Amino acid sequence: MARIPTLRHCSFALAAAFIVLLQGCGAAVPADAPGGKTIAIWHHQTAGDGPKLIQQAVDRFKQDTPGVDVEVVAINNDAYKTKIKVAIGAGNAPCVFPTWGGGPLHEYVNANQITDLTASMTKDNYRDRFPGAAFDSVTFGGKIYGVPVENTAIAVITYNKAIFQKYNLKPPATDTELLQIVHTLKQNGIAPFALANKPKWPGSMYYMYFVDRLAGPEAFAKAEAREAAGFEAPVFIEAGKRVQALVKEGAFQEGFNGLDYDAGATRALLYSGKAAMELMGTWSIGAMKGENPAFYRDNLAFFPFPAVTGGTGDPKNLIGTVGDNFYSVSTTCKDQANAFKLIQYLIDDKSVAARAQAGRVPPVKGFTSDDLILRQIIDLVAQAPHVQLWYDQELPPALGEAHKDSSQGLFSMSMKPEESARQFEAAAKSYYK
Amino acid sequence: MNGVGGPSDRSTAAVFFLLPAFAFLAVFIVWPVLLSIQLSFYDWSGISPVRTFVGLDNWKALTGDGVFWRALGNNLIVVALSIAIQLPVAMALAVLLHRGGNRLKIFKVVYFFPMLMSTVAVGALFKAVYNLQFGVVTPLLEAAGLAGLSRDWLGDPQIALFSVVAVICWQFIPFYMILFLARLSSIPNELREAASIDGATGGQYFWRVELPLMRGIIITAMTLSLIGSLKYFDLIWVMTEGGPSRATELMATYMYKEAFSSFRMGYGSTIATAMFFIVMTAALATIAIRQRRSEEA
């Protein structure tokens, strides 16, 4: 007799548990703050002072906006790219989140997921706070969909001054000089460049600069506009050859193709003196300032990507973005006004000062700095005739991926430059068909 | 109905017990599978409100997609290596631990450690181990005077897949070891005594008595390894993301990239559906073979 009641109790308990679970599913929406609302913000400022910068702005917003709570979620850069896409696709986008503008943002805009911020930006001439070029990659059909916040980020070659002094090296003006530096460093057992090419975009910076230095920004613009031979034009093949020449020269530390960027592995190579240079976005300078102030103070310097012999591109041109990380508001956000207000706190005067302190160049008009390195970045951007947005962010996502794959194929030497260009162009053809 | 359950009472209880599991399976497995099959006929970015019906276009593209075939090939390499390495090593360890009895008890726990770690932690750990500047593999080889054997473990397309398979084996050998150990422990001691009275050596006892008795569990282990390797994803994703240059691309990593990085949810669903059918066929085939074997026996 004892067993049967147990069985009955069990099935009853199980059924009860099931019902509770179902209710749990139904109630799985973020709990509201007492008597108010919650705004969710995602970001990927996980290196250096990044998390602090966001949190301080959020705290100020909360103080001035009683009754509104803010949920801050920080996600590593490369994981963020897929996570945000899944969230948007599932209709669970956070209220406020960053993108790099360009192709992916355009995709979200086309899907009616991003709030048109033009009215809010024009109100009280708020948009005049930012340089005009900062809106290039977030403006679609004349409407603004993002606010530039984090950093004016351009790709430059950072290097360890102490190593350069020791071997009597000077910042190169041409690729020939750069190859000589590579040679000298190599002979002395130092990896010339630190490169973390597992996520593929770090290597792509070399390729983009070679294209730009060889034939100017028009080369990419033409290919993007589907003119002439597209991405199979001679300049793209030549750029691939230059990349592979560097690889053959041994310009990168061993194991570069399997290395992750997010864990700061390349910066560790620079700090430890195992590598002398890194071509990277200037956000790495901010990260270094936060992680290793002594290195930043004593050893860090940078130079722009050198001119390429025989190339027609202006060596003052840059690859990067004038407003890197544009914050947008999702259309599913219930509190649109406060979401935009929160973004304004991310780039208010206090945030600008804090970002400058953290070694960044906030994308606001007339920003200057006492810091020599930051001033050099500001000057480079001011003098640049053209700033090319990263290909993988400029292009539609499917092509951005194709570009990164073909670029990594060059670095791993598993593809000839012609083959890599053909593969990229084939992807473009099938996308635009 | 006097307190002791009749047939109808029992089936009510059975339905009650099965209902939660069935509901969860239906909502979280069956329904998504059906949706993926449906999506494989659409061109859809995954976020756009509009999806376009394209008929068999995705499937035609898949049959001509070199990356997919390469990924399937990589999957088959993982299947072959997993079965060829994991099962024999696991068997050797299980026999060793079984014969060692109490003296080796501590190793039962030690050998099981890899299985207790989360795959992401294992992946992160071995990325650090393989790192050429700060890792331990290269210095160990150098210390052993084998510096010439050092390779770019995860960055060289020629060997990246093997570097990752080594870690997969490290992680899963303990699982099969426990499986075999459990079966070995259930073999009655009388058999061993009888064999030794007949003058059988340890080796003869293993090959002639233990191994034949373990046929069922070995086939089960092979089936698990086969299916697991065909749909493998996590460790590869953490360690190489299918790179460099597709060298470690598996069907699952390719599906993930197409669906979530390239914004091609429709094509990603096509890959997922193809994977589903491939894994399903493999599973049904092994079940069929098993049944025929057990009928013969």
Mean pLDDT of chain A: 87
Gyration radius over CA of chain B? 24 Å
Largest sheet of chain B: 2 strands, antiparallel
Strand content of chain B: under 5%
CATH topology of the largest domain in chain B: MetI-like fold
Topology as H/E string of chain B?
A: HEEHHHHHHHHHHHH
What is the class of the largest domain in chain A in the CATH system?
A: Alpha Beta
Pair with the biggest interface:
A-B, 52 and 42 residues
Q: What's the pLDDT, averaged over the residues of chain B?
A: 87
Specify the overall morphology of chain A. Answer: globular
Radius of gyration of chain A (CA) equals: 24 Å
Overall strand count of chain B? 2
Indicate the structural class of chain A.
alpha/beta
Described by the principal axes of the CA atoms, the overall outline of chain B is globular
CATH superfamily of the largest domain in chain B: MetI-like
What fold name stands as the CATH topology of the largest domain in chain A? D-Maltodextrin-Binding Protein, domain 2
Q: How many strands, which pairing sense, and closed or not: the largest β-sheet of chain A?
A: 6 strands, mixed
CATH architecture of the largest domain in chain B: Orthogonal Bundle
Number of DSSP-assigned strands of chain A? 13
